[in-house]
Write a structure and sequence with these properties.
about 85% helix
């Protein structure tokens, strides 16, 4: 794979993970913040749905074989999830999350870059 392909794939994966995790966070906010079926709650759910739809689109536009996307995507997802979790909910990961996340990132790199 050429370096431009890797850079392009990483850009698509980062965009996809930001959209997915932001969409999940927005849906969580809609579920737990707005008690009634108000216009604000419906709008918040709709925004979450649009973000999650964007995730699926960007993930599938990544210029990689689907089997190769999975490892790198999962690793990227873990990292972006922690950043978005802090940005939306002001929660830092604890030590078990960081240790397990390190394994996720290493595993994702093995799946994506180890070529037998």
């Amino acid at each position: 794979m050429r370096s431009i392909g890797v850079s392009q794939a990483i850009a698509f994966l980062i965009a996809a993970t930001i959209l997915e995790v932001s969409g999940d966070a927005v849906i969580r906010i809609a579920l737990h913040t707005h008690a009634d079926l108000t216009a604000m709650r419906i709008s918040t759910f709709a925004l979450g749905a649009v973000l999650v739809f964007g995730y699926g689109t960007f993930l599938n536009l990544a210029p990689l074989e689907f089997r190769d996307v999975v490892g790198l995507y999962v690793a990227t997802l873990f990292i972006v999830w922690q950043v978005i979790n802090f940005a939306f909910f002001r929660t830092l990961p604890n030590l078990p999350t960081l240790a397990g996340g390190g394994l996720i990132v290493v595993g994702g790199a093995i799946v994506s870059f180890w070529k037998p």
